[in-house]
Design brief:
heterodimer, A: 137 residues, mainly alpha, globular, B: 0% strand
């Protein structure tokens, strides 16, 4: 259930959106990087990125993520928000099982449990609710 | 230096640069004036991080790069505490360590 205050709602939905975007970014990036020649220079890497249409989509998603992230950071601690986005590791694993038919190993299951426990710990820690208002004061 | 060592160095560089990028963006949210400069610096760092991380994937298997990349959770928390003076409680540190371990296990076979 989303939180009640406006600032908390912005953080909640902002973080949820960040996780969704990050999930698609990771899946796309993995596909796009496969077309880069092996052991290139940094310049060759940049040239390959410019030629590969998937990287354009990655760039667009990154731009959307950046705009969303700026809003999130306006309302909460960086160390809190960044840790919560680790849930994208869980969503990528879940999508790999649901959409790609991949299976998870026991260590990966354990990893998902640790991430969820870690996010619960971070979520329970004290964090800044509305930094803009506090800064203004 | 072997190709693997070079790849590890690149991932660690990308991790550190991501931490700096995040701090710049948070600075933009905190300051009353000069937000644009911090944002440009943050996004420039993200661009550099993207290029370096992509470069590293040609020297390292993804199964090694992803777990190393999860060190960014530690880097960001540490930089938030040191540079932004955020109050990072023991509970949050415990959470970050659990996330680091979990992300390493999940991404280890990516």
């Amino acid at each position: 259930m989303p939180p009640r205050s406006q600032a908390s709602r912005k953080v909640f939905f902002g973080l949820a959106f960040a996780i969704v975007l990050d999930t698609f970014l990771q899946l796309l990036w993995k596909s796009a990087v496969a077309d880069i020649p092996s052991q290139p220079t940094l310049w060759q890497t940049l040239q390959s990125m410019a030629r590969q249409p998937l990287f354009l989509l990655v760039g667009l998603l990154m731009a959307g993520q950046a705009c969303n992230w700026v809003v999130v950071l306006d309302h909460t601690d960086l160390s809190y928000a960044h840790a919560i986005t680790s849930l994208s590791y869980v969503s990528v694993a879940a999508l790999s099982v649901l959409l790609l038919g991949e299976s998870l190993t026991v260590p990966q299951d354990l990893g998902i449990a640790l991430i969820l426990l870690g996010v619960w710990f971070v979520g329970k820690s004290d964090h800044q609710g509305e930094p803009s208002a506090r800064e203004a004061a | 230096m072997t190709a693997s060592h070079f790849g590890i160095l690149l991932v660690l560089m990308a991790t550190a640069i991501e931490g700096i990028a995040q701090v710049c963006l948070k600075k933009a949210a905190m300051v009353a004036s000069g937000k644009g400069i911090w944002r440009v610096a943050g996004f420039a760092c993200f661009g550099l991080e993207t290029a370096i991380y992509t470069w590293s994937l040609r020297y390292l298997p993804v199964s090694m790069a992803f777990p190393l990349g999860s060190l960014s959770f530690v880097a960001v928390t540490l930089l938030s505490q040191c540079l932004l003076k955020e109050r990072v409680t023991r509970m949050r540190w415990a959470g970050v360590v659990l996330i680091l371990l979990g992300a390493s296990l999940v991404a280890g076979r990516a």
